[in-house]
Amino acid sequence: MSRVIAIANQKGGVGKTTTAINLAASLAAAERKTLLLDLDPQANATSGLGIDAKKLRRSIYELLLADTPIQEVILPTSLPNLSLVPANADMPAADIAMLPLAGRELRVRNAIHPLRGAYDYILLDCPPSLGLITVNGIAAADSVLVPLQCEYYALEGISSLHTTIAAIRQRLNPALFLEGVLLTMHDRRTNLSQQVETEARKHFGDRVFATVVPRNVRLSEAPSHGLPILLYDIASPGAQAYLNLAKEVIKNETTS
Amino acid sequence: MSRVIAIANQKGGVGKTTTAINLAASLAAAERKTLLLDLDPQANATSGLGIDAKKLRRSIYELLLADTPIQEVILPTSLPNLSLVPANADMPAADIAMLPLAGRELRVRNAIHPLRGAYDYILLDCPPSLGLITVNGIAAADSVLVPLQCEYYALEGISSLHTTIAAIRQRLNPALFLEGVLLTMHDRRTNLSQQVETEARKHFGDRVFATVVPRNVRLSEAPSHGLPILLYDIASPGAQAYLNLAKEVIKNETTS
Ligand SMILES: Nc1ncnc2c1ncn2[C@@H]1O[C@H](COP(=O)(O)OP(=O)(O)OP(=O)(O)O)[C@@H](O)[C@H]1O
Ligand SMILES: Nc1ncnc2c1ncn2[C@@H]1O[C@H](COP(=O)(O)OP(=O)(O)OP(=O)(O)O)[C@@H](O)[C@H]1O
Ligand SMILES: [Mg+2]
Ligand SMILES: [Mg+2]
After folding, report:
1. Measuring CA to CA, which of A188, A225, B74, B246 is 20 to 30 A from B98?
2. Nearest Cα residue to A196 out of A206, A207, A186, A209
3. Min CA distance, A181 vs chain B (Å)?
4. In tens digits, what is the pLDDT along chain A, a chain of 256 residues?
5. Cα torsion for A141, A143, A148, A153, to the nearest 10°?
């Protein structure tokens, strides 16, 4: 039975895509069959895995707006156990185009349903908003993984994310739980990072992953080569952090 | 006659709010009467200026959805020449609530029209998306200022922003021009920053501001004190960069 995890936070630039790509790649390296869905019209998860979104004839768009079977849209990646459902730049208006559709909040959930037995993990990279596409992602998921950048604005936004998750649990997805909060771009040298870490562990307790992703320039270089960090620079602190995160997520499997 | 500038980029976390607050504060310090509109449901520009969005009875929401006169929503800030139209956390659904309204793309433009003579500058902080709220912001503006984080994904997203600006110019706002591209979070030590700067100057030529905002932790500390950088730490590289940016924007006034 697959575990479906939505990677979501409406605050922009907190490390959602970096986490989606590198957690997916680390799970694949640990022999877990993994599928990554790029739900963001920016198509960063698609280009971060080396696929040119502009050249694609099909994408997640067909799933959200038409009833194309998901098997027709899945692409292989540079890692054997990792597949991708790409986004493409045509999607910015997807939110509005989906509004008149029946079951518009459950398009992703229904699309991935036939695959639940074929993958160990299905990860969903969400855009920086709480609109219809992100609601689709969270409604389709078993759990939500929240990347939390170690900055003031990022911490501030957590309460409205909490409210949204609770609303989706009540209306659309009663079994939804918090996979965990992941501290990202942590910089040991700054007080701000320490303050955010202290606040987050106070608020969320053991729901904060033990793994903390440090600020590491190798992580921001990897997407320009179309590679996950473990293929770009396995020895980097960024790669080690995401391999540790994958271990924690796998461990959660047996306890949740 | 006011200059209305939208600060927009659908890529998340590139420094839109940091630029909106600190450019507005620097223009106010240069004796320009300035109004900042927080169009983002995250309400970061509001909290970054020390205002608690949760305690507000009125916000931009009333402008977008009802016909409350804008004068009733304007708040003073810690700087004499700077006023704010705040956001509040109720706004996440504003996009969808606005859809059935007549002239839904021109709500902001119509709301600020009566103020055009009262302020030298009106700045609009946009959310990380190309939805109805950002379209409202760009349709209301004379020009768009695009913060460009010195990272790979940020550079990639520029072309879809270009397309959106061109579409709005054609459909809603024929006189719209590019105020400029501002390089943000530039780190002299990394190759990536150098590469992005080279690419940006190749694409946009002299539309890239001479001012480059360096990565500076004081900029990310200031909002937790509810202060613009020039009141938090005037000597910091971040404060100096935004004062220089204000000088360039004022100089643009006479040439554009
Ligand atoms: N730990 C890290 N160290 C250094 N840079 C990082 C780290 N994590 C992410 N980045 C870089 O920071 C930027 C923002 O990260 P990313 O794009 O993954 O965030 P996001 O939340 O997906 O953004 P959006 O809200 O636009 O979807 C990217 O340029 C990325 O390469
Ligand atoms: N030059 C800089 N140096 C260091 N930190 C910065 C700089 N500019 C912005 N920041 C920090 O980076 C984070 C992202 O910046 P900001 O919130 O202004 O971006 P944004 O584009 O408005 O994000 P969103 O897409 O969520 O609206 C914030 O925590 C901010 O304090
Ligand atoms: Mg992303
Ligand atoms: Mg912002």
Report:
1. B74
2. A186
3. 18
4. 799 999 999 999 999 999 999 999 999 999 999 999 999 999 999 999 999 988 888 999 988 998 899 999 999 999 999 999 999 876 767 888 888 888 999 999 999 999 999 999 999 999 999 889 999 999 999 999 999 999 999 988 888 888 888 999 999 999 999 999 999 999 999 999 999 999 999 989 999 999 999 999 999 999 999 999 999 999 999 999 999 999 999 998 866 5
5. 70
